Amino acid sequence: MHTVMERQIELNLVLSPESSIPVPARFSYRTADPYAVHVTFHIGSDHPVRWTFARELLVEGVFRPCGYGDVRVWPTKVRDRRVVLMALSSPNGDALLEAPADVVCVWLRQTLAEVPPGAESERLGIDGALAELLAPTAADDVRVTDSTDSWPSDDTGDGE
């Protein structure tokens, strides 16, 4: 059984040090995709903007700056409030988003209680699928017993 954990969080899109606008976002965690968090930004258009990145990146970003490239996350204080900043970069542009740290932390704790760090691979079922794929079959026991049917040896000396 797979679980989906979602939380609506109002973020602020930072336009300048003095100006920001609210952006509703849905944070989603799926045990079927245990390494990732999905964030959907509702920006007033017919097509919401979706980002997917490592849950570990968000967990670490609550405590210290992390990430590089397209997604960077770090904690800070804004007007004496703890916030988590997320810098997102794409070919379509860049965005700096501010999230209330306490709300993000509560949601992250719920995801970590559902799938603890290090237990993600168990949720994927990779070990079981590999065991099934590599399990011996009846065809594995077939052996060639007639020497005339064997493959030619590389020791023939041809081409030397």
Explained architecture:
The protein is of the alpha+beta class and 160 residues long. Helix content is 22%, strand content 41%. The chain is built from four helices and eight strands, in the order ββββαββββααα. It has helices at residues 55-61, 101-114, 120-124, 126-134; strands at residues 4-16, 19-30, 36-41, 49-54, 66-68, 71-78, 81-90, 93-100. The protein has an eight-stranded antiparallel beta sheet, with helices on both faces. It is elongated, with a radius of gyration of 25 Å. The model has no long low-confidence stretch (mean pLDDT 86).
Could you list some keywords that capture this structure?
160 residues; alpha+beta; 8-stranded antiparallel beta sheet; 4 helices; 8 strands; 41% strand; elongated
Number of strands: 8
Strand content is 35-45%
Count of helical regions: 4
Provide mean pLDDT, rounded: 86
Draw up the topology in text:
Blueprint: E1 4-16, E2 19-30, E3 36-41, E4 49-54, H1 55-61, E5 66-68, E6 71-78, E7 81-90, E8 93-100, H2 101-114, H3 120-124, H4 126-134
Antiparallel strand pairs: 1-2, 1-8, 2-3, 3-4, 5-6, 6-7, 7-8
Short note summarizing the structure:
This protein has 160 residues and is an alpha+beta fold. It contains 4 helices and 8 strands.
